[in-house]
């Protein structure tokens, strides 16, 4: 894939105050740099280094920083770069002020607020620096399995200095929730500026204030009856809200008093008391779902937010029950991704369904018109065995070495031309990790977990589907993780919620197997402080991983903290906590984004403050001895960052082995 259309990134210089006496300066190594590329660093025009920096990481510590504004400049490699650090800059991160949307009241009378949720990055203006595309989620967003009205999903675009470029309102005909609004940000037409692609509907308002389709249409189920009963339901909602607030205060007081709050009101024999339900005047089972109406795929200008073209979404919804149920828990399951399906230019792929019928449509954008490249449909008799194999996420890479990307759709794979590549028949799962696990080969493998209480988790060859090893399970294995965390074993380590410990690339346990009694005892300690269990290694994180501390092992990123596995003891070492911030999506506990966004090859962590008034881009303050190309220049890694927001968020992975098992010279520039 040497001749593919690439992003043209700049030097990515960033300066962050570490403490009162130190400022860290970090910058990118680019694929155009020669090995041992010399760099010089300047502050307000004064050179700081005595000799050109030709070895070690692209990382510098200014131990005599100025108390005033300071502009740091990196010179070298034919691409210089600057960053101005404000005098009052906070320690450890770049602050990005947000314009938080006002909340509202939904047709059922309930109030909702907004919080910053998933994010992606793209160079929308062609200057070589990433901007942030941020999704705002309402507090009443819903999973597809649940009915209920939701507030509108919104998208903002921000520069790293906090300048907002535009806001897109998805409108009332796009339901809000983790599985409804996957989006892809990338430069699809090769003009050097990124676009946003996302599914839209009647009433979506672009960044210029223009409506897509019929701005007045309202396709929400039971909307007429809900509005007719709005006043009654509004009063009932106020009462419910007051009761919930009182209950919250009581719980807080009980915790302060050292008492254990009761999870539910119990009757005299310990049984749950039935909830008193009110009649809202409409069918609550259907309310708020969107099961009809036109749907589109739209490409938006990344700089202005203007809708440039919309085409009918493929596939159309049709008869909802044909997807497996009559309430949209099958038909309204969406995924999205991108790939170089022709080996040269990037295409988007938007998907519908994974529990049953599955359709994937690839789209090309040439700067003028969206064109459907191909469509894969399990209703085609050739691909009927591929139905019901999708995950809550999707991975893309050139797995068979033909120079073009393939789509790994859970337990099956689709070739770059839209034909089936293979299916394992292991069905739906919640997590998967695609990368080079084995340092002795360039082949990509996939670590996948399954929900069917049969297939557990497996490592397979990503090109053929051949299983390398499998850990059967009678449980729904809802989480799995893969990262190189132990230098005493070759390659990556893997574990899942039912792998009985950490496995190596041969499937062998590299931690002592826990007996069923020990595992039951651990679960019984669920009321114990989570941090204490975590630090003792009894709860190895399965949500995210991050390259943070400067060596070639990967750290865990989970629940507002970065931690390192201590292979000698089996415990965890806490490295960083993101104070005042909140991770997203409940137990999924993922940041808004984690990726190599600025600076050297390590990954930054983009998180929201608890009140969603600010994004914070945290940069590692730890020096590194390794000079490695910007990870975003690795195509599989870049694609996995573009799809990080999709469904159940997964951490990005490189398309090559990155870890301590190869010679250091394999990574150095």
TrEMBL record:
Q: Which Pfam families match?
A: RGI_lyase, RGL11_C
Sorted keywords for this record are:
Lyase
Q: Where does the Rhamnogalacturonan lyase family 11 C-terminal domain lie?
A: 93-227, 286-661
This entry's Gene Ontology molecular function terms read:
lyase activity
Give every Rhamnogalacturonan I lyase beta-sheet domain span: 5-75
Q: Where is this region: Disordered?
A: 232-286
Q: Which InterPro entries match?
A: Ig-like_fold, Integrin_alpha_N, RGI_lyase, RGL11, RGL11_C
Could you name the domain of life of the organism this protein comes from?
Bacteria
Q: Does the keyword Transmembrane helix apply?
A: no
Q: Which residues form a coiled coil?
A: none
User: What residue spans carry the Basic and acidic residues bias annotation?
Assistant: 232-260
- Give the protein name, as stated in the record: Rhamnogalacturonan lyase
Write down the species: Marseilla massiliensis
